[in-house]
């Protein structure tokens, strides 16, 4: 077993402010885990504690069962066998690609003195990240994406058991960022290296991860696999942060057999789930709503509301609608439709969705 991480009740305070507040995460060996959340939620501080740069005030971090961080005991970063890549391309401008990648083997804990072996391993790492033939170039002759690959090769060269990535794609342009994502994930899968990835891009977190940890104000709000987080979030915060969501408020009037009815300003709606103690919202995703012409009945939908299309936005494979609903004053529903069926602005419609797709969520 190599690279399994257990984070238990981890807390880091700056003065009286808890940047990381009682965080517990279990990461199995070989998994790709994203720490996701708005700016300032404590993602980077958690990663820095994992790396050994920041000592915790409470709790502990263990790797493969051995504690590497706890108050009063922090194993040095260089002894942790972790590779790191950061947002800024931390490659040395005065060194060639080869020398950048070779650095950890020349000066690190895992020094390699045999010249032939050094060359073989450096060339191997450079090939791994798709930079074969670029060994003699200096970083300023490379694109941003290529520089990030150099940083990645350097992080991997010492064969770490864990890879820590702090927004490594965020300085790349959109197109490159999109292709690098898939490369990063396929490389991680091939190597089977446990990876912790900090991002505020929900799209990246969903695409890449075995598990996503959603944080806010230093706390973990939810952690789960991407599909469960998207389809069945527990909280309104996660539903809103991951993907698009429409919410309804109101008192719950009945609960039986996994079905909950909520009296909303738009009428009585039925959803699935269980009502928590801390207040509830009804959530429906834009793609789970079907618009039909007014008067067209759809008995398969438990929920049907009259509405009017206010705005239509064509977005290639989907059409986005802003729909006002009788009884909901300010708020508009976001609905995603699929061509060729099109509604136009001003059209009176019926808004339908099933109770299975509508979820009752805790207010976090
Ligand atoms: N050395 C420090 N001294 C004081 N406060 C700090 C320090 N490091 C981080 N913080 C505070 O802790 C909180 C969490 O910071 P952190 O960098 O972990 O957030 P983040 O989720 O990574 O945010 P971002 O996405 O903006 O990088 C922030 O409010 C930050 O200002």
Automatic annotation (TrEMBL):
Keywords, ordered alphabetically: ATP-binding, Nucleotide-binding, Transport
SMART domains listed in its UniProt record: AAA
Family assignment from sequence similarity: Belongs to the ABC transporter superfamily.
Keyword Metal-binding: no
Annotated signal sequence range: none
GO function term, MF aspect, one: ATP binding
PANTHER family: SPERMIDINE/PUTRESCINE IMPORT ATP-BINDING PROTEIN POTA, SPERMIDINE_PUTRESCINE IMPORT ATP-BINDING PROTEIN POTA
Protein name: ABC transporter ATP-binding protein
Highest taxon above the source species: Bacteria
Matches recorded under PROSITE patterns: ABC_TRANSPORTER_1, ABC_TRANSPORTER_2
Keyword Transport among record annotations: yes
Domain ABC transporter residue range list: 5-242
């Amino acid at each position: 077993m190599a690279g399994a991480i257990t984070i238990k009740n981890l807390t880091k305070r700056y003065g009286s402010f808890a940047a990381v507040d009682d965080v517990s995460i279990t990461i199995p060996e070989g998994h790709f885990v994203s720490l996701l959340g708005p700016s300032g939620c404590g993602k980077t501080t958690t990663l820095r504690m994992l790396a050994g740069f920041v000592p915790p005030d409470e709790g502990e971090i263990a790797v493969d069962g051995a504690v590497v961080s706890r108050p009063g005991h922090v194993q040095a970063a260089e002894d942790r066998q972790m590779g790191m890549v950061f947002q800024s391309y931390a490659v040395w401008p005065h060194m060639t690609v080869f020398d950048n990648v070779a650095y950890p083997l020349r000066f690190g804990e895992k020094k390699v003195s045999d010249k032939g072996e050094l060359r073989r391993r450096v060339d191997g790492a450079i090939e791994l990240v798709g930079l074969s033939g670029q060994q003699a170039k200096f970083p300023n002759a490379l694109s941003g994406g290529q520089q990030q690959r150099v940083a990645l090769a350097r992080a991997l060269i010492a064969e770490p058991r864990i890879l820590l990535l702090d927004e490594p794609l965020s300085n790349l342009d959109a197109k490159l960022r999109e292709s690098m994502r898939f490369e990063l994930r396929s490389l991680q899968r091939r190597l089977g290296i446990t990876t912790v990835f900090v991002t505020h891009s929900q799209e990246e977190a969903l695409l890449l991860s075995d598990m996503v940890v959603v944080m806010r104000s230093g706390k973990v709000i939810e952690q789960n696999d991407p599909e469960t987080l998207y389809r069945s979030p527990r909280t309104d915060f996660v539903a809103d942060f991951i993907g698009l969501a429409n919410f309804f408020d109101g008192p719950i009037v009945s609960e039986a057999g996994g079905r909950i009815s909520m009296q909303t300003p738009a009428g009585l709606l039925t959803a699935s789930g269980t009502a928590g103690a801390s207040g509830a919202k009804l959530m429906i995703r834009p793609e789970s709503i079907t618009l039909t012409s007014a008067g067209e009945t759809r008995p398969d939908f438990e929920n049907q509301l009259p509405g009017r299309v206010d705005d239509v936005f064509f977005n290639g494979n989907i059409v986005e609608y802003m729909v006002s609903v009788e009884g909901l004053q300010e708020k508009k529903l976001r609905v995603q439709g699929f061509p060729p069926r099109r509604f136009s602005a001003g059209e009176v419609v019926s808004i339908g969705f099933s109770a299975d797709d509508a979820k009752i969520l805790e207010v976090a």
